[in-house]
Amino acid sequence: MNSMWQEKENRLNRSFQFTDFKEAFAFMTKVALVAEKLDHHPHWINEYNKVDIFLSTHSAGNVVTDKDRELARLIDTLYKP
Amino acid sequence: MNSMWQEKENRLNRSFQFTDFKEAFAFMTKVALVAEKLDHHPHWINEYNKVDIFLSTHSAGNVVTDKDRELARLIDTLYKP
């Protein structure tokens, strides 16, 4: 598990930063495709060049599960700041 | 101005709902292209089929300006729930 993800309040959280909105949204598009494939979707916030991602598993009672760790790992592979 | 946008705490806010993540993210992609073209970007939150959008103008001191009203109007034209 990448140490840049922090587990707090039963969610994995990591913040990502980019040069501008275009780069941030390009990243979000890649994450969206991976999330859809896994059928496991993030709670995420975007403001200009920042993307803040929160992961937890609704079906498990909103706690962090291996599905979240797997999605976090895949998201990290997509991050090219 | 569409009355479904609410002005509170110096931001325009509207929540959008879709059948699933795929539809929600397709909408976000359309909004992203319009925002980039206007060079005016939303603060937004997505969780599965919901998109919550907040608009304010940073360069004007984080208040609602005509740029926000214009982006809100364009976003409404993209919403096909």
From TrEMBL, chains A, B:
One of its GO terms (molecular function) is 4-alpha-hydroxytetrahydrobiopterin dehydratase activity. It comes from the Bacteria. Its EC number is 4.2.1.96. Keywords: Lyase. The keyword ATP-binding does not apply. It catalyses: (4aS,6R)-4a-hydroxy-L-erythro-5,6,7,8-tetrahydrobiopterin = (6R)-L-erythro-6,7-dihydrobiopterin + H2O. SUPFAM superfamilies: PCD-like. It holds the Pfam family Pterin_4a. One of its GO terms (biological process) is tetrahydrobiopterin biosynthetic process. Belongs to the pterin-4-alpha-carbinolamine dehydratase family. This is 4a-hydroxytetrahydrobiopterin dehydratase.
